[in-house]
């Protein structure tokens, strides 16, 4: 199963990628996570990426494409992967076609109001990057602490309501050509992500199975869903 997850902020990309990763034991590949790790380790790539971020600039396509290409060639990705945060431009989408033949691009569709509510309550573990929510499932078992490592959860500055509204609108302005690109190539699958995780995840699995994309057997049956 080689899929790309796309969706506006608050659509649940990180959450569903996390559940699929844990249930089917395939990697969740996020360019954002890769860049943050490289910056934290102060690698050459991290310093280059940081220089663009500090100037408020996007990391150039050629750097992002090289990073993704190297990651997808690693052994753990041969069985399948969930790609999140790439492609972000039409050029990146075309480059991805040359790197790997993805099975599907799943567009998680969410309304602006639901997105704002979700993200204003989102909390993230700074250690393992698991995603929680104080309003929706999955909620942390202890007050704003990670269920797995006990780390204090954090709220991202860009999860403030007005910031979310702007990010939502920018997403659809930016991703319209990418969505159409995959629609024309018959690789686009759209899933209504407005409902709860417990309602949406079975639908997502069924759609992937029906389209003969999800052929893997679960490696873990007791994964927490919502």
From TrEMBL:
One example of a Gene Ontology biological process annotation: AMP salvage
Could you state a single Gene Ontology molecular function term?
zinc ion binding
**Region (NMP) location:** 30-59
Q: Where does ATP bind?
A: 10-15, 122, 131-132, 195
InterPro entries with a match to the protein in the record:
Adenyl_kin_sub, Adenylat/UMP-CMP_kin, Adenylat_kinase_CS, Adenylate_kinase_lid-dom, P-loop_NTPase
Q: In which pathway does it act?
A: Purine metabolism; AMP biosynthesis via salvage pathway; AMP from ADP: step 1/1
Positions binding AMP in this chain are 31, 36, 57-59, 85-88, 92, 156, 167
Task: Identify which top EC class this enzyme belongs to.
Answer: transferase
Regions that span the bilayer: none
Record-linked NCBIfam families: adk, PRK00279.1-2, PRK00279.1-3
Q: How does it assemble?
A: Monomer.
Its domain description in UniProt is: Consists of three domains, a large central CORE domain and two small peripheral domains, NMPbind and LID, which undergo movements during catalysis. The LID domain closes over the site of phosphoryl transfer upon ATP binding. Assembling and dissambling the active center during each catalytic cycle provides an effective means to prevent ATP hydrolysis. Some bacteria have evolved a zinc-coordinating structure that stabilizes the LID domain.
Family statement drawn from the similarity comment of this UniProt entry? Belongs to the adenylate kinase family.
The protein's job, in short, is: Catalyzes the reversible transfer of the terminal phosphate group between ATP and AMP. Plays an important role in cellular energy homeostasis and in adenine nucleotide metabolism.
Q: Which named protein is this?
A: Adenylate kinase
Q: From which organism does this entry originate?
A: Desulfurococcus amylolyticus DSM 16532
């Amino acid at each position: 199963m080689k899929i790309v997850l796309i969706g506006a902020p608050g659509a649940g990309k990180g959450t569903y990628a996390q559940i699929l990763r844990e249930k089917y034991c395939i990697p969740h590949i996020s360019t954002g996570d890769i860049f943050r790790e490289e910056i934290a380790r102060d690698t050459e790539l991290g310093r280059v990426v940081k220089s663009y971020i500090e100037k408020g600039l996007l990391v150039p396509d050629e750097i992002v494409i090289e990073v993704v290409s190297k990651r997808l060639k690693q052994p753990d990705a041969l069985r399948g992967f969930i790609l999140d945060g790439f492609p972000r431009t039409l050029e990146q989408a075309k480059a991805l076609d040359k790197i790997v033949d993805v099975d599907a691009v799943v567009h998680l569709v969410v309304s602006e109001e639901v997105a704002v509510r979700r993200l204003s309550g989102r909390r993230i573990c700074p250690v393992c990057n698991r995603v929680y929510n104080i309003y929706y499932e999955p909620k942390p078992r202890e007050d704003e602490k990670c269920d797995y490592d006990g780390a204090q959860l954090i709220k991202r500055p860009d999860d403030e309501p007005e910031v979310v509204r702007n990010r939502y609108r920018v997403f659809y302005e930016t991703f319209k050509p990418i969505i159409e690109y995959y629609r024309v190539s018959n690789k686009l699958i759209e899933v209504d992500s407005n409902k709860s995780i417990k309602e949406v995840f079975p639908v997502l699995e069924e759609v992937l199975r029906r389209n003969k994309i999800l052929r893997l057997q679960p490696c873990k049956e007791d994964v927490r869903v919502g």
